[in-house]
Write the structure tokens for this entry.
Amino acid sequence: GCCGAFACRFGCTPCC
């Protein structure tokens, strides 16, 4: 899974 602010910054969506 891709969760966390760092994940969002890496273009991982949707963000948890």
